[in-house]
Amino acid sequence: MKNAIGREIPEYIEGYGQVVPYAGAFATPPNRQRQSPPVKWNKPGESKLIAGLEAVFRRVPVKDGMTLSFHHHFRNGDGVVNMVLTTAAKLGLKNLKVALSSIFPVHAPLIEHIQNGVVTALDTNYMSGPVAEAVSRGLLAQPVIMRTHGGRARAIECGQLKIDVAFIAAPAADNYGNLNGVQGPAACGSLGYAFPDAEYADCVVAVTDHLAEYPLSPVSIPQTRVDYVVVVDRVGDPQGIVSGTTRITKEPVGLKIASLAAKVIEAAGLIQDGLSFQTGAGGASLAVAHYVRQKMEQTGVRGSFALGGITGYLVDMLEKGLFQKILDVQGFDLEAIRSLTANPNHLEIGAGFYASPFTSGCAVNKLDVVILGATEIDTDFHVNVVTGSNGMIMGGSGGHSDAAAGAKLTIVVANLLRSRLPIIVDNVLTATTPGETVDVLVTERGIAVNPGRESLRQQLTAAGLPVKTIQELKEMAEQIAEKPKAIQTGEKIVAVVEYRDGTMIDVVRQMGD
């Protein structure tokens, strides 16, 4: 069958189940109640401290076929996932489902666990590195479920992603299970993507290398949801968790694109008091923030809040009074961690608060502007951030689709050519974010406005910006570089791409030879 954006998807997928096709960004309302987490109790004098992972596996107990969840705030410095799965393999467990909010190169040992039958299912929002390549080549018998950050929170809250045991890597913990991410040698900042896991998992295990005196302060995840605390030698490598500094690009093409994007925001009339803004941690995205900052300073504008993954640059804007608040679901550098610790206007939020579509209102709904990237974009403004030019999985939606749906103005910034290939195609290989939620594409050669945003196109044209149709930009790119050849894929579905509401927007098929 075809979904609302014309993607061919099966009605039923083995290992996934009955498919509900994507029907539109806001066309599928909730059809179930939020699930109730189990009621727990802990008697006076009972200790939550467990001497090692093997002991906690036996205490829970962890059994074949269970779903184990993990967060990704340690990114490529994570040590807990591999540690836990090594324990599972040692104890002879099989058929586990790993619900890890993002998968990085450091998680390469997952491949061996899959080959040995310890892990037979994956549920994630983003994949890169050896695991993503192996999955793309057909490693798993059943497809990986790829969600958005808000969609994962929704799936957990609504019981579609049922977690038996959540292993929460905690930079700091006390002996009764209060956790935070801002203290200890592996401090990572906000623990927001672990909030739904802690709230709804049947059992919650904190894994830490920094045991603080009770009561821990501040508290991100409270003792009331944590069942056991395990102290290990090292939960993560700080070099992979934070970069120390995240810098604005100095590349001329990237700066030109960023300058144009800032002019789009200005021409749309959104650089005004109360501006709310989200951008990524990449150099080009930060450059947009830099140019927006200049315009805010020139006009005396004071924004409302910055959202999403937080960098030192946004922290500096907060401290200079350019934003009143930061809503932080994930920190990207040391300055973000410092600010979360020290500044009462820097607020830690969970994944559901950030982007779950099935709540009484998530933070992305209050966004004026979001700046997003793209692997490719098609002439209907559908964006791919899952697969690369060879069909390999190399990313995922994360908060891409969530923020695009919520923001008043969604801007995709991208070079017209990437690796000598046009960024604009007739049909993206993998649809991730639907075109109905994308307003503008900004490239170094011009700006394309979604045909459904005619009044915005008129505003940008009146401001003297280089507005073109997306077809014109596509033809311009193909005059510089040849039109890319269609990618040949196999029949096997290796991943399903869910939209934030749980409907299926696309599938990923096995890479061709």
CATH class of the largest domain: Alpha Beta
Query: Which consecutive residue ranges, at least 5 long each, have pLDDT under 50?
Result: none
Largest sheet: spatial strand order: 3-13-11-8-4-5-6-7-28-29
For the termini, the CA-CA separation is 27 Å
Q: How helix-rich are the residues, as a percent range?
A: 25-40%
- Looking at the overall shape, the CATH architecture of the largest domain is 3-Layer(aba) Sandwich
Mean pLDDT: 96
Count of the separate structural domains: 2
The description of the largest β-sheet is: 10 strands, mixed
At the third CATH level, what is the topology name of the largest domain?
Glutaconate Coenzyme A-transferase
Q: Count of helical segments?
A: 15
Radius of gyration: 22 Å
| Secondary structure tally: strands | 29
Q: Return the structural class.
A: alpha/beta
* CATH-assigned homologous superfamily of the largest domain: Glutaconate Coenzyme A-transferase
Assign an overall shape: globular
Give the percentage of residues in beta strands: 15-25%
